[in-house]
Design a protein that fits this description.
The protein has nine helices and no strands. The protein has helices at residues 2-22, 52-56, 71-90, 94-116, 121-133, 141-166, 173-186, 188-209, 220-234.
Length: 241
């Protein structure tokens, strides 16, 4: 079953690549079929096998010979690993299905934000609805609502503080909606820990990317999804309790 979940995840990762590329550009994720972004030639099914095709093609388009971004197999491999880890954590259960939805949103949102510095509402708002709707099987509707409000409220406070002190936007409404989504799945306690650990991870990103000051744009979205994923998977092992 672990192998099946890994393969299943890699296949979904291939679809997530389509979402990551097209959603910010406001294109349909259904049609047209996948094509090379350089020469626009349609990608045949045998060149679209997750991870394997990238290796067989030696990271080059079959038709134009231009280099294929390493992001594509990276997303496929990451999704496969995340699906496997989720299965090992939750087993075959309703919780597995619920958290696979959340983790899938994490992957798509994280890569979109890293690339475009935006978090589309078309992902976070349905995520909030799903988090609230499925809370009956996880944390309960009251905890879900409170988590959504706390997550959004804390980020809203920081948005206002950032504007007041630095006179510019450090975080945006996309981050607020993302935390509302995370809180709806995890509850208010985990939402607060997500913000704490996400801030630490964000500062690490800033150091690696050479950000000179807190006034520079930070990649907070990817930091939040990484923090939330780790908290969900490892739970009390990484919570300060």
């Amino acid at each position: 079953m672990s192998i099946i979940l890994f393969i299943f995840g890699a296949c979904f990762g291939s679809f997530f690549n389509v979402c990551i590329y097209r959603i910010p550009r406001k294109k349909s994720i259904v049609t047209p079929p996948s094509a090379c972004p350089k020469c626009t030639h349609r990608i045949m099914w045998y060149d679209n096998i997750p991870i394997i095709s990238y290796l067989l093609l030696k990271a080059k388009c079959r038709f134009c010979g231009k280099k294929i971004s390493v992001i594509y197999p990276m997303v496929e491999l990451l999704t496969a690993i995340v699906f496997l880890v989720a299965y090992l954590k939750f087993g075959l259960s309703i919780k597995l299905a619920i958290y696979l939805i959340l983790f899938s949103l994490f992957i798509i949102i994280g890569f979109i934000d890293a690339d475009t510095e935006t978090i589309p509402d078309v992902l976070s708002i349905p995520g909030i609805i799903i988090g609230l709707g499925t809370s009956f099987f996880t944390i309960g509707i009251k905890s879900s609502i409170l988590g959504m409000l706390v997550g959004a409220g804390v980020i809203g406070f920081f948005i206002g503080f950032w504007l007041l002190v630095f006179k510019k936007e450090g975080m945006g409404m996309g981050d607020l909606m993302l935390m509302a989504m995370i809180g709806s799945f995890t509850g208010w306690v985990s939402a607060l820990y997500t913000i704490f650990y996400g801030s630490v991870i964000g500062l690490v990103f800033a150091a690696i990317l050479g950000k000179r000051s807190l006034q520079d744009k930070l990649y907070f979205g990817p930091a939040l999804v990484i923090a939330s994923f780790l908290i969900i998977i490892f739970g009390k092992h990484i919570l300060l309790q």
